UniProtKB/TrEMBL annotation:
<dbReference type="InterPro" id="IPR015797">
    <property type="entry name" value="NUDIX_hydrolase-like_dom_sf"/>
</dbReference>
<dbReference type="Pfam" id="PF00293">
    <property type="entry name" value="NUDIX"/>
</dbReference>
<feature type="domain" description="Nudix hydrolase">
    <location>
        <begin position="1"/>
        <end position="129"/>
    </location>
</feature>
<dbReference type="InterPro" id="IPR020084">
    <property type="entry name" value="NUDIX_hydrolase_CS"/>
</dbReference>
<dbReference type="InterPro" id="IPR000086">
    <property type="entry name" value="NUDIX_hydrolase_dom"/>
</dbReference>
<protein>
    <submittedName>
        <fullName>DNA mismatch repair protein MutT</fullName>
    </submittedName>
</protein>
<keyword id="KW-0378">Hydrolase</keyword>
<dbReference type="GO" id="GO:0016787">
    <property type="term" value="F:hydrolase activity"/>
</dbReference>
Amino acid sequence: MASVLIDTVAWVRIEGGRILCARPKGKDVFYIPGGKREGAESDLQTLLREIEEELTVSLIPETVVHAGTYEAHAHDGPDAPLVRMSCYYADYRGTLAASSEIEELAWFSYADRPLVPPVDQLLFDDLEAAGELR
């Protein structure tokens, strides 16, 4: 049986040593904001659309920089689908606000690492090692 791959992009926004995370409605886990591509969208197109949909801000395309790509099984365990998360830094315009898809926004430190899925934890590890996440 072929394994399932969930291909996602995520926006890495760090302020004051904390990273922005979002909890979708109906979920009990926080994620790095972003989501899955639609059709033949590029990473950039997906990122711009998803962040506007989730957080009501516009990312500034010329500031988008790849932060890393991570793979891990979804939080359901080793039999869960594999998640690939391509992460990007970017500046934005507007005021961050949870859209109708998002229940809650939070700024997480490295100590909050257990509250995010395994693929997000890999990003947390790299950001902490680089001194970006406290």
